[in-house]
């Protein structure tokens, strides 16, 4: 048992050591180039960060490289620019990502813990009023979770007082806070937004 314990401890130290070495090298490279993502197709660092993240699932999702936070096999970017929904989505796509899709309570809780202002998410009813679809074409029935605001006036309400075309894009939180919930809002509004990409599709196969 003691040998097993020592063995586990050594493995842990070794893995952590490798991680810090990679992180140090990445920082050094970033400082030198002033260009944080210097190669597009294969980003070994992203893959390794995700691997370490899944190895140490007890750790919180705080590992961050080039502004992207790795959490449970996905990378998230919390953008500080404010844009309308379509431009937000285009910005994510230009980074080899898309607006975030929220498919579990864990993911919702993680995102809520990171934001201090309302953010666009990748959910809309632009095609058919009342039929909410994620940017990856999944419906809310398919993902099985939804977190619409339900205290008081229920969302989505397709409110038309401000924008006669209604509200067809979803945000996490509203201007009053309420970061635990989703709201439909006019797609023309400018908000911060969250991009998400899966590691393997964008990093190893380089289709960004
Ligand atoms: Ca709507
Ligand atoms: Ca609304």
TrEMBL record:
GO terms for molecular function: carbohydrate binding. It is found in: Cell membrane. It is a single-pass type II membrane protein. Pfam families: Lectin_C (PF00059). Keywords: Disulfide bond, Lectin, Membrane, Transmembrane, Transmembrane helix. The chain crosses the membrane at residues 6-25. Residues 71-196 form the C-type lectin domain. PANTHER family: C-TYPE LECTIN DOMAIN-CONTAINING PROTEIN 180, RH26557P. This is C-type lectin domain-containing protein. It comes from Sinocyclocheilus grahami (Dianchi golden-line fish). The lineage of its organism: Eukaryota, Metazoa, Chordata, Craniata, Vertebrata.
């Amino acid at each position: 048992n003691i040998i097993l314990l020592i063995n586990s401890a050594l493995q842990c130290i070794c893995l952590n050591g490798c991680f810090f070495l990679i992180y140090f090298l990445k920082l050094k490279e970033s400082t030198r180039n002033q260009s944080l993502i210097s190669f597009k197709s294969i980003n070994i660092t992203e893959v390794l960060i995700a691997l370490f993240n899944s190895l140490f699932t007890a750790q919180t999702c705080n590992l961050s490289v080039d502004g992207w936070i790795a959490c449970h096999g996905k990378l998230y970017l919390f953008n500080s620019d404010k844009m309308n929904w379509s431009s937000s989505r285009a910005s994510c796509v230009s980074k080899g990502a898309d607006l975030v899709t929220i498919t579990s309570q864990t993911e919702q809780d993680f995102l809520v813990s990171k934001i201090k202002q309302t953010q666009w998410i990748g959910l809309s009813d632009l095609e058919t009023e009342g039929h909410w679809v994620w940017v990856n074409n999944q419906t809310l029935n398919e993902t099985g979770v939804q977190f619409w605001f339900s205290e008081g006036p229920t969302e989505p309400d397709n409110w038309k007082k401000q924008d006669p075309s209604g509200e067809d894009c979803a945000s996490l939180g509203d201007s009053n806070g309420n970061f635990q919930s989703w709201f439909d809002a006019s797609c023309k509004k400018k908000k911060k937004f969250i991009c998400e990409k899966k590691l393997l599709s964008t990093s190893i196969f380089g289709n960004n």
